[in-house]
Amino acid sequence: MARQPAKTNKAEEGETYLDRVSKEVQANQSRLSLILGALIVLVIGILVFNYFNRNQADLGPSQQTETEQEDVSVENLPGKYTVKEDDTLFLIAQKYYNDGYKYEAIVKENKLSNPDQIEVGQVLQIPKLEGVTTPQPSPTEAATIQPSPTAEPEKVPSDAAPGTKGAPDITITQQDWGPKITGTTYTVVEGDWLSKIAGRAYEDIYAYDRIAKANNITNPDLIFPGMVLTIPR
Fold first, then answer.
1. Which residues pair with 79 in a beta bridge?
2. What range defines the domain where residue 29 resides?
3. Is residue 69 domain-shared with residue 46, that is, in the same domain?
4. β-bridge pairing 154-155 and 123-126
5. Are the CB atoms for 123 and 69 separated by under 8 Å?
6. One domain, residues 127 and 149
7. For residue 160, what pLDDT is reported?
8. How many domains in the chain?
9. Cα–Cα distance for residue pair 122/18, rounded to 1 Å
10. Could you tell me the CATH number of the domain that includes residue 153?
């Protein structure tokens, strides 16, 4: 009878040891779970940070947007151009190649899936095309007219921009306009300006805005040799 309590104490000690081992295992699993959870949160945080702070240079040319990007000049192609309000690829190609139908070169260079979808602020890579020259017009070239010495000049007011209504210090005569334009299209040559073309087409230099609207020209003072204009009738 005296040995029975000793056996009971050993069993209790065994159960207590197993309980301690089980508790330690559970505690270790909890710590391991916490560590793994912290590592996962850290990795996700790093990925999110890198996503929002990645360099735009890693993006494709057609995906980049930059707030301050100087447009490449015609004579310094290839280079970058930032899309402006009301821009189209046709107009951009017209600006750099004197031929809007060469827009496909820009599409190919920038791997654009839809040429009709470009966004304001989008930066496009403008390639240089072999055999294509697009000289910049002189600021005074479009406004210079040689008056006829035998014709009676028509005086124009002096408070407007050159080439538009009321150009300063310019006299215009019917003889200065040149041969009459009778067709529905006209190819710009060196020295042309919209008012002069309107005079040849309509005998009215102030009708230049009809040509500007028909050709989506936002600045009537900027036309380039080789540009093909639609002459609305």
1. 126
2. 20-54
3. no
4. unpaired
5. yes
6. no
7. 42
8. 3
9. 68
10. 3.10.350.10
Q: Are residues 24 and 93 in the same domain?
A: no
Closest CA to 111 of 97, 127, 91: 127
Question: 153 pLDDT exceeds 80?
Answer: no
Q: Is the pLDDT of residue 38 over 70?
A: yes
CA dist 178 to 167, 181, 195, 208, Å? 19, 9, 12, 15
pLDDT for the residue 195: 87
Half-sphere exposure of 97 (CA within 13 A, CB side): 21
Of 10, 34, 54, which one is at a domain's C-terminal end? 54
Higher pLDDT residue, 121 or 7? 121
Domain match, 38 and 95 both: no
In this structure, are residues 18 and 26 in contact, taking their beta carbons and an 8 Å threshold? no
Torsion 101-103-107-113 (CA) sign: negative
- Domain assignment present for 2: no
Is the domain of 42 the same as that of 63? no
